[in-house]
Amino acid sequence: MRVKALVLFVVALAFAASAWAAATETVIYNFNNYSGDGYYPMSSLVADKAGNLYGTTYQGGGNGLGSVFELKLSGGVWTETLLYSFAGGTTDGEYPVYSPLVFDAKGNLYGTTQYGGSSCNCGTVFKLTKSGTTWKETVLHAFLGYTQKDGYFPQAGLSLDTAGNLYGTTEYGGVSNQGSVFQLQPSGTTWKYKTIHSFSSTNGGAYYPVGGITPGANGYFYGTTYYGGFAYNAGTIYRLFQARNTWVGQNVFYFLEGGDGIYPDSSLTMDAKGNMYGTTYYGGAGEACSGGCGTVYKMTAGANNSYTQSVIYSFQAGDKDGQNPYYGAGVTLDATGNLYGTTYIGGKGTQNAGTAYKLIPSGSGYKENLLWSFDTVSGDGYYPRAGVIVVKGNIFGTTYVGGSHGAGTAFEIKP
User: What pLDDT is recorded for position 9?
Assistant: First the structure.
């Protein structure tokens, strides 16, 4: 385990009055690809009860195959601790992608890696358990791939239900090699793995999930697929539930071309009323992009487990707004119903390096405040591929590249 002191690098910008929100951004950590540190973070952060932040890097660490890290604030300075370096091969995972970590009630951490773990190099589900000042990693499942009717290449994060079961998706594999949903049930000191759903494009079906699973009320679980649907193959929202000990899949919504948004690429965020929110990579009313610049949409819960979809924001790109929320970015809700997220590119000015935004309920719709436009020249991070979290009213996230070493950053935005 290695602890590194952080040298704070502050970037501040006061936007002009009008629609732009005044905000300050601080790079709280610069990842370093020359020091054995992790680098290229692609997943969202998660916070513990004390406000410490945890995340993964796609590459780097002691073996160059990705890492798990902690960021802790003390005396106004953030320090990083490298908790685990993935070893790869047939016994460990490698290269965690868009998978944010998740805590259980005991403080254990869970996540996925896209590769490693078996002879087919198909990815893993892992657990990190703290013992004293160190963390021990356990591979809960190594994916076996399509030839074994298992999933492979998990990209999204995991979710926990109230019984402590883990759920997740793989982009490929399953019976039709078009993706799967899996469950891991704790059983004593071991975990029981089961593929509970295989996606298929047959008859307009859903396929290739890049987002994860969101537990809802009454035993329903919801997710998105990047492709699928009868009319335009523009993606779907699906749900799973158990009936007579069998998992049943249903398509809740088919995305259409144009204004609906196309290619949903994030997990869904659910509010207290059962409404769901997510992002699409393309589509919407933004005219600056061929095929649309991406959207934030809402699924409004109705009677008999029905949902109505509406686009609550279309990104405009150009030099005034973000564009293309990346795989897994999604949105985060605060206690008053505001939504927060990132776009991979776009932003005010000419840098086209991505944004952080806030959507505020306003009347029957939402108003966007562009909180931050990242840039490539000031030492700021840029190209955020992950979403953000809200801790004590401030926004925290990561950028894939940029910062003082070009290897990515963790940042804080104070609205």
Answer: 33
Neighbours of 1 (CB within 10 A): 11
User: What are the tens digits of pLDDT across the range 25-65?
Assistant: 999 999 999 989 999 999 999 999 999 999 999 999 999 99
Residues 413 and 367 in one domain: no
pTM (predicted TM-score): 0.93
| Range 345-367 burial, b when 16+ CB lie within 10 A, else e | bbbbeebbbbbbbbbeeeeeebe
Cα angle value 165/274/160 (rounded, 5°): 15
Question: Could you tell me if residue 378 is inside a domain?
Answer: no
Buried b or exposed e, range 383-406, using 16+ CB within 10 angstroms: bbbbbbbbbeebbbbbbbbbbebb
Closest CA to 284 of 243, 317, 306, 239: 317
Q: SS3 sequence, 274-288?
A: CCEEEEEEECCCCCC
Span 299-339, pLDDT tens digits: 999 998 899 999 999 999 988 899 999 988 999 999 999 99
Can you tell me whether residue 33 is helix, strand or coil? coil
Domain membership flag for residue 267: yes
Question: Average model confidence (pLDDT) for the chain?
Answer: 92
Residue 366 and residue 222 share a domain: yes
The pair of structure tokens assigned to 84 is 């685990």
Number of domains composing the chain: 3
DSSP bridge pairs for 1: none
The Cα 339–Cα 394 span in angstroms is 13
Amino acid at 211: G
pLDDT(386) > 70 = yes
324 and 403 together in one domain: no
Q: Which two tokens stand for residue 247?
A: 């998992």
DSSP state of 400: S
